[in-house]
Amino acid sequence: MLDSIPSFTRLVAELAKFPGIGTKTATRLAFFLLRQPAAETEALAAAVLELKHNTRFCSVCFHITELDPCALCADPLRDPGLLCVVEEPQAVLAVERSRSFRGRYHVLHGALSPLDGIGPEELKIAPLLERLRQGEIREVLVATNFTVEGDATALYLARLIHPLGVRLTRLAYGIPMGSELEYVDEATVHRAVEGRREI
Question: Can you tell me the mean pLDDT for 10-36?
Answer without folding.
Answer: 96
